[in-house]
Amino acid sequence: MTTVQPALDGTIPTPKIPAARRRAEDYETWIDEVWPKYLEAAASGRTFTFAEIADEHRLPEPPDSHMWGRLATRLKEEGYTRTAGWTTSPRPTVHHSGVRTWKGTAAARRAAA
Predict the structure, then answer these.
(1) 27-112 CATH, one of 1.10.287, 2.30.30, 2.160.20, 1.10.10
(2) Which residue has the higher pLDDT, 19 or 14?
(3) 15 versus 22: which is more confidently predicted?
(4) Average of pLDDT values for 19-32?
(5) Of 37, 94, 93, nearest in space to 60 by CA
(6) Residue 67 CB contacts under 8 Å (≥ 6 apart), including other chains
(7) C-alpha count within 13 angstroms, C-beta hemisphere, residue 18
């Protein structure tokens, strides 16, 4: 049983239930939806993780979780991103494991212009 701490005024706070993420039916549909958001992130010049962008834009999960790695590889191979370092994942399902951080390239900034 979970206990709930009432607020100072005695009210019970609304529970924070994470929104379920939808799953794309196939790779092509998924990549068509997520690709522009990652190009936008790369063009911004900020350092990011793939999970941060997915959470910010409420992007769908791919049909297979290994497709996240394929997306990262494609963006790097096409010259839009480069590796920037490492951080710990904010996703509770991976228990703060290490994840790569990414940064956009000049090609990504040109593509956004």
Answers:
(1) 1.10.10
(2) 14
(3) 22
(4) 86
(5) 37
(6) 27, 30
(7) 8
Question: Cα(87)–Cα(30) distance, rounded to whole angstroms?
Answer: 25
Residue 82, beta-bridge partner list: 103
Per residue in 56-66, pLDDT (tens digit) is: 999 999 999 89
CA atoms within 13 A on the CB side of 103: 9
Distance CA 89, CA 44 (A): 21
Cα separation, 30 vs 24, whole angstroms: 5
Residue type, 64: D
Domain range list for the chain = 27-112
| pLDDT of 85 above 90 | yes
Q: How long is the chain? A: 113
d(CA 87, CA 35) in angstroms, rounded, equals 22
**Looking at residue 18, what is its pLDDT?**
56
